[in-house]
């Protein structure tokens, strides 16, 4: 290892930025030399640039600007751009986050070039290989040298796939670190006023391919969402990839539905914090509502984050069941997450990850006790 090793973080979509910010900050406090590669997978300013400001991330050392496209075309562009960048930067470790195409491409390039890699959010599984994200997760975990798990069930998934325990570290969830840091700034009132919303409202975020990529699925989803909007006014920040399809299916501004552009990190979480209900198909939103105590209905047949159901406020629903589930959630009102919070979701995941990486760069391997994690 070089005397002053370099760590590169590959970020492509807005959840990556949220997960990376606490890790980047903690590594900086340990004096580790590092840089960010922004792949441009989320290329809209509201989907990426504003997150650098909201989360205090440094300017990237490279922006690949790959933009959108089919999975094959986007991944191919990422492979070429990341290979060129890694060869130029000569990193000693590449850290990837989550399960997007940028994550997959970076881990493949690392494997081909012999560059060590680390995966933050390792071991999550929906057991649905029809999801592109599930394929990305499995490949990424199989090739990573360091695997950082956010919840206990991830450990058993990785063990079942033959990943050596020596590579795996249970560290908690850095997305929750970012949430805790932002809490003092999360005020729903200014965002509600700016968007012209009533005092009581619900939020919907919908973008998964299974929900929006065919006219039939989009129509079924929109019909259910519109029925929910007859129970409570609904604000829908629309992800670019689903905008056209959802609009064609009939999701437009109406007295009960407010369709808006994607929001920045602080604005979006402020809106969620003040909501009576959240309807989503996003993994990260399941986690955030769990910690904020906001009722969450996830329009999916499965989740790679079951801990948000057992420890949180989340429930899986089909589009057909969504209106009735919304009616019940609204009648029940605000909820308190059941039992204790998920293990190690305490705002200190970033420093745990940073300590492991720093020790690894020095040739050490931290035990759970040295990471500051109790063994019980």
UniProtKB/TrEMBL annotation:
Residues 32-357 form the UDP-N-acetylglucosamine 2-epimerase domain. The keyword Cytoplasm does not apply. Keywords: Isomerase. Pfam families: Epimerase_2. GO terms for molecular function: isomerase activity. The keyword Nucleus does not apply. Belongs to the UDP-N-acetylglucosamine 2-epimerase family. This is UDP-N-acetyl glucosamine 2-epimerase. It comes from Nonomuraea glycinis.
């Amino acid at each position: 290892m070089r005397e002053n090793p370099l760590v590169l973080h590959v970020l492509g979509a807005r959840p990556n930025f949220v997960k990376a910010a606490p890790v980047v900050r903690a590594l900086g406090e340990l004096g580790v030399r590092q840089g960010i590669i922004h792949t441009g997978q989320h290329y809209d300013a509201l989907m990426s640039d504003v997150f650098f400001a909201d989360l205090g991330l440094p300017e990237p050392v490279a922006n690949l600007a790959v933009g959108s496209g089919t999975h094959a075309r986007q991944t191919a562009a990422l492979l070429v751009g990341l290979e060129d960048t890694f060869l130029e930067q000569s990193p000693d470790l590449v850290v990837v986050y989550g399960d997007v195409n940028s994550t997959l491409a970076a881990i493949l390039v690392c494997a081909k070039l012999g560059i060590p890699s680390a995966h933050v959010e390792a071991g999550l599984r929906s057991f649905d290989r029809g999801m592109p994200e599930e394929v990305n997760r499995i490949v990424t975990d199989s090739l990573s040298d360091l695997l950082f798990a956010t919840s206990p069930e991830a450990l058993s998934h990785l063990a079942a796939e033959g990943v050596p325990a020596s590579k795996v570290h249970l560290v908690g969830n850095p997305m929750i670190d970012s949430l805790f840091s932002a809490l003092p700034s999360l005020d729903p009132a200014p965002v509600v006023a700016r968007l012209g919303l009533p005092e009581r409202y619900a939020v919907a975020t919908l973008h998964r391919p299974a929900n929006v990529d065919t006219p039939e699925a989009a129509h079924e989803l929109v019909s259910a969402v519109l029925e929910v909007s007859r129970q409570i006014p609904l604000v829908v920040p629309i992800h670019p990839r689903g905008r056209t399809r959802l609009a064609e299916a009939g999701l437009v501004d109406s007295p009960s539905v407010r369709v808006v552009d994607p929001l920045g990190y602080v604005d979006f979480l402020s809106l969620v914090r003040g909501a009576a209900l959240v309807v989503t198909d996003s993994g990260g939103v399941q986690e955030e509502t769990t910690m904020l105590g906001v009722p969450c209905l996830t329009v999916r047949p499965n989740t790679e984050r079951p801990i948000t159901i057992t420890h949180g406020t989340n429930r899986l629903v089909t589009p057909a069941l969504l209106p009735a589930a919304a009616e019940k959630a609204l009648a029940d009102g605000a909820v308190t997450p059941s039992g204790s919070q998920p293990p190690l979701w305490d705002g200190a995941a970033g420093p745990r990850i940073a300590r492991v990486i720093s020790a690894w760069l020095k040739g050490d391997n931290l035990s759970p006790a040295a990471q500051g994690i109790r063994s019980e």
